[in-house]
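Workshop exercise sheet. Pairs work together: one partner reads the sequence aloud, the other fills in the structure field after running the prediction. Swap roles for the next sheet.
Pair: D.N. / O.F.
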Amino acid sequence: MHTDYRNNMMRQLRNQQVRFAPREKKIEQIQRAEKLLGEIHLDRTYTYEYLCFRVTDYRPEASPNVLISGKDAGHDLRLFIEDVSDAANIPVESAEEQVLTPNQLSQRFNVSTKTILRWRDHGLTGRRFVVEGRKRVGFLKSTVERFVSTNQERIQRGERFRPISDEERSEIVRRARRMAAAGGCPSEVARRIAERMNRSVESIRYTLKGFDEQHPELAVFAGQRSRLNNQRKQQIYQQFRLGTSVEVLAKRHRRSRTSIYRIVNEIRAEQISELPLDYMDNDCFRKSGMEQEILGPLPEAESSTRRSKPPTGLPTYLASLYEVPLLTRGQEQHLFRRLNYLKYLANKLRQQIDPWHLKSSLMDKIERLYNQAVETKNQIVQANLRLVVSIAKRHVGTTSDDFFELVSDGNMSLIRAVEKFDYARGNKFSTYASWAIMKNFARTIPNTYKYRDRYRTSQDEMFALTEEYRSDQIELEQAQQLRECQVSQILSRLDEREQKIIINRFGLDYSQEPQTLKEVGAVIGVTKERVRQLEARALSKLRLAVQDEKIEPPGEEPLRRGSVHEIGAACLQTESDSRSASTRVHHRGAPS
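Structure field:
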């Protein structure tokens, strides 16, 4: 399937017909598209509604008034015909008329197959047929005759083509090798040889490419004809932004200067398409004469407004916040209006970018407007950082680390609030931002304490107060295997139902959590009171089994009778120790 559609609506139409249209409908739409293609004028403009109706016989509900130039419409219709015919799986034997291959056309018009492929870009429409089990491009006889009737001059120019002799081919290779050794790029070498030998640049380029493919060990431009991947394009762009000239980049990467400019503009266009230019719309943006007022200087504060003096003994970061004066109501409105207006202008210009004709001047304007919007946004954020500190003080925990974590988290909420605030509603930004920050704190603070309670080792004081004792890993693993064997031994003294109760109650099967009496009763089909009785009887058996097997608990003191954790304490390693063993048995206490 082709990916180089020039209009996104035509690509979506292709996707719909390829996925959902029946085979007979696809063939009908191919014929309608070929008929429409013969009526397209390159100097006219067509609506997507008209093109869609001519191809599918229905009018679209979405985007009916999208305009498409005749050149783009002809290009996309040719791709549409090839893609839909490819999806229809049409055998060449079922074609309604004679189908000509590219080789047959080249012999008929005495041109190369490369010329036939170029003619496809100028209106020669092809379909994809199934030939001997494989998809091949073919041309209907009527389509070829229609192309010949409208492109007589192009056909005659192709028929006058003079093939390159073996002597000329050797001369081309010799000259190209000498120029390449001097640092010439493929496009520049082809252009110079074409001027000296009175040949077209395309013929020289095609000759050199064929020689390199047939003789890779003697290739003139070995390893230089492969298409640049995105990583290499990014490298070229970064080097260009760091000040490397286009001439140096062209020699370094063996490309033409035009190719370097195209790569730079391509990467710039990709980055511009990803810029966050969402804005809060306002009717004043479209009024004439408002640009000078919106982008004018910031209104001056009232004379009574003075910069606050920071209290003594504050940390450096908190003291620096007092260096930025607070915004008045008028200044705040002015900055938010400027921020959204700059994004509005940049977004409007971004819609004018043509991926086939990238203009550096247009992208310069977009980047300049975006940088101004970022500066305005930073000005708003810096003036409201003290608001975050005041809210964080009311939610702070017991340590100073908690406070600065809250400030950092609150700053992120403040930045998001600047993006979402609609100044036209007349509310103060501090009210909106306060609710956004407190809402975020209400969500993140419980999660933080929950995480710390679960993973105690994340607390620094735990490391400072707890002495670390390292043990031999092999010894721990052997002890763990011994305990597993002891568990199996004493559990074998129980019948099947008692084993199931003990395993479920104490979580000895680490695929599930310890269960309550009611949950165990539901599994084995008895009441929870009966489960308690069976559990007590099983524990008595296990106490005797522990004594008979002379199993000692992990601690120094003997096991206390009636302890609810006696099975886990006597037979399983604790969870903290078992982390170091390669074979883990997860132990959790029984539910209370």
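Discussion prompt: DSSP finds 28 helices and six strands in the chain. What would you look at next?
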